């Protein structure tokens, strides 16, 4: 096998705060794997979080780890047991390989697999490199009318698809979303694709909401910061009351921030019998207005990554049900990966999704 | 009925129970039976256990109608009220059996329940069955002498929630005994026929009055989606927890682990067929309790039904539930609670609450009549109507070992 380039540059988080480029061997593949030339990788907030904080929740960085998990690439080698892909195929990469044998996997909820190997979650190396070996059944061929940049966005889009599935958005529903970052915006896109009648979006950043105006949202609400000395629950009661002066209660509220106030407001803004979906990750323990759950039967549920989303995502992008291109605002070559991370951290120049090109 | 020398005052404006409670007169109702004599008399029950009574009295102009009325916080009295006349679509009933609910006791002791405050005297009670004594205009689906169970919540039947099958969430629901609406603990009441259910003889009076808490249990199992062959954690072995246990077993759910702080209640649960009973130590950390529950059950429960309303119990239930499972809060607790959000969000444990029930009475009647669920043994204490105040005292004192206290007329 001859490769276009023999070097395999990896973007490695050596320890908290330190990203370096490293040459590593080109990996060998198992019979059920393919070797991919990674062409595009989007940067996720979680990559940035690992860089800045050295861990997320219980997942802690103990040794150097390659970053990145939102990737698309080209097949350059296939294992003996692989039948559905061939050299030259363009694919979207689903970064989490499940065991396929446990009860969760067998009942279709492989995102909850306890043996899950998820790229860029310690200790599993991520996809920000030139050559990556991956289970062939977690690589999805994309048609010619989907670019590799769009294919890389299928990963964050999957989070939104899973959120939409879990929330059971139905046609005509009112959906309210907290958070106008890439995930919140993709949730808006999914809400509309699911047939939602009205999508409202709230954020503390007027600039982000400016972008949201032209991306699948019908109304935008700028949130103020809490007053000095005001508790979160007081802020949430006051603010949701104010929001309800111009907005109706929603069938589904998605929180894509993880902030305690937004979680509280999500419950207060949902109709009786409606549903709140927590997409953002926040503090382990939060003060929750349980009376909204008990007296009004508002369900609250979270999501953990996604499952069974890639084939649907490919179809939706291919047929134009969803357009992810507007979200890709900036790109950097692989050798300037550190600059790309700095850009995402600063959020400057209206950055939504920053991608790294291999 | 024992009498005192005082002539009880008749409270005007009580003839219609349908409207939001009309303002009552400001005069304090004179007690029919003094509180002292009520508690010292021995309870004397005239309805034998397990009977489907057929005797009733159609009221005449001399018939007095007494009610158990909460005048204000901690001031419960037997008060005479007018015999109500049924409006169009209603019937008049002689209430034969009524269970006392924890919410009745709470309203009595605190003068409020949730956001609803007792601002005017209110009749308590909502777990009842009775016998039809008079038909209102246009009533053809019931006849005098019919035994019926009473569904105490009357929704508007026109709003979005009602029309999509969630009438329990109707914003205008009139739930009898939630302030300001009068409950059903009186000798005679009126009620729309639409919210009454005929009882076969295979459902006794006690069971007729148990259909309401049984409805809560059925609704809880529906909300959480418990299914045969799946495991269940029930928090709390009070009447609701125990009836949930009975329903879960009837639908093939298992193994079932149930918790409580009292040994006697856990023993009761064991006798009812709980596979495991776990005694809660309130000094233990919630995460410790969750671990021990999982360890005793041998695995993480697929579902949990929280029937205490206590914050720490809710937290333990959330943490114990398996990934991808469901934890449903049946009990009513504090408004704002500190919950382990990552534990449920990142493990995809769905959190649901329950507000009363809808479309459960026919199911409840079927489960009892068909012998699938036997819960009449939960009625541990029985009182004649005249001893109602004593019944409330017993219901509110856990040292009596009371599970369900019922009042018979």
Automatic annotation (TrEMBL), chain A:
Protein name stated in the entry: Enoyl reductase (ER) domain-containing protein
Upper lineage: Eukaryota, Fungi, Fungi incertae sedis, Mucoromycota, Mucoromycotina
Residues in Enoyl reductase (ER) domain copies: 17-356
Any GO BP annotation: sorbitol catabolic process
Presence of keyword Oxidoreductase: yes
Keyword annotations: Metal-binding, NAD, Oxidoreductase, Zinc
InterPro entries named in the record: ADH-like_C (IPR013149), ADH-like_N (IPR013154), ADH_Zn_CS (IPR002328), ER (IPR020843), GroES-like_sf (IPR011032), NAD(P)-bd_dom_sf (IPR036291), SDH-like (IPR045306)
A Pfam family reported for this protein in Swiss-Prot or TrEMBL: ADH_N
Family: Belongs to the zinc-containing alcohol dehydrogenase family.
SMART domains tied to this protein: PKS_ER (SM00829)
Entry GO MF terms: L-iditol 2-dehydrogenase (NAD+) activity; zinc ion binding
Keyword Glycoprotein among record annotations: no
Domain of life: Eukaryota
Cofactors, names only: Zn(2+)
UniProtKB/TrEMBL annotation, chain B:
Alphabetized InterPro entries for the sequence: ADH-like_C (IPR013149), ADH-like_N (IPR013154), ADH_Zn_CS (IPR002328), ER (IPR020843), GroES-like_sf (IPR011032), NAD(P)-bd_dom_sf (IPR036291), SDH-like (IPR045306)
Pfam families: ADH_N (PF08240), ADH_zinc_N (PF00107)
Location of the Enoyl reductase (ER) domain: 74-403
GO molecular function, one term: L-arabinitol 4-dehydrogenase activity
Annotated SMART domains: PKS_ER (SM00829)
Needed co-factor(s): Zn(2+)
A GO biological-process term: sorbitol catabolic process
Keywords assigned: Metal-binding, NAD, Oxidoreductase, Zinc
Gene3D superfamilies reported in the protein's UniProt record: Medium-chain alcohol dehydrogenases, catalytic domain, NAD(P)-binding Rossmann-like Domain
CDD domains per the UniProt record, alphabetical: sorbitol_DH (cd05285)
Keyword Nucleotide-binding: no
Protein EC: 1.1.1.12
Catalytic activity: L-arabinitol + NAD(+) = L-xylulose + NADH + H(+)
PANTHER family noted in UniProt: L-ARABINITOL 4-DEHYDROGENASE, SORBITOL DEHYDROGENASE
Family that this chain belongs to: Belongs to the zinc-containing alcohol dehydrogenase family.
Subunit relationships: Homotetramer.
Protein name listed in UniProt: L-arabinitol 4-dehydrogenase
Organism the protein comes from: Mortierella isabellina
